[in-house]
Amino acid sequence: MLTTLAVLMGLSGVAPAAQAAVNEVDVTLVLAVDTSRSMDFEEISIQREGYVEALKHKEFIAAVQSGLTGRIAISYFEWAGYVVQDSMIDWQVIETEADAIAFADKLGARPIATQRRTSISTAIDQGASMIVTSPFQGRREVIDISGDGPNNSGDPVTPARDKAVARGMVINGLAIMLRPSDAPGGLDKYYADCVIGGPGAFVLPVHKIEDFAIAVRRKLVLEISGLPPPAKVRKIAGLPATDCLIGEKQWRDIFER
Q1: I need a surface site. Which of 95, 113, 175, 179 has the fewest CB within 10 A?
Q2: Which fold does the domain 24-256 belong to in CATH?
């Protein structure tokens, strides 16, 4: 009886530890991609191709395999004024080149469509919810927001950011600046002041559509490796703080005219 009890106790101690090891990853990463109508079909297509190319690139795979566990968990969704429900690609472990290619192929097979408005706050809330309910335990938890305009729909962006950061998450940004932005001082400044947050958070600007794939790859490598980003992409110094409600005010002004 005592022997049986000892065996059962041993098994009960091993199972949770084994389960924790299976679920442990270096990073849980949510890719939240803007598909609002301020970008045309060609730009959305090139943006999609940029993510697919970056996920298949050897530099990305090498960054994944260089971590303590040598694997990450990644998920994806698209957003505009709301989260596009059928765009979600559920959590997948990336450990090998084949894993990365499989995830990229799922993304590449998605139909391309655009939606109205821009709610960065909704995207952050969705990303945070996905991380909290994820079956994986990441040493770092990252929400990766790409967008081409300020928040103009849903809740204000800064409370959503602050709530996610308070949970220990990091929010990084890719500011798509292919044409003049509604954000005074530049969209990268808006993202730096209003969107990104957490230890080592950064924003990368994209000024030319042909540079998109390189920017996405660079961002993914920084996020996965945990290396500190260059100082110039963390915060933009020397300018006054951005009005984080500028998008909402501009949208209100349109209706009041």
Answers
A1: 179
A2: Rossmann fold (3.40.50)
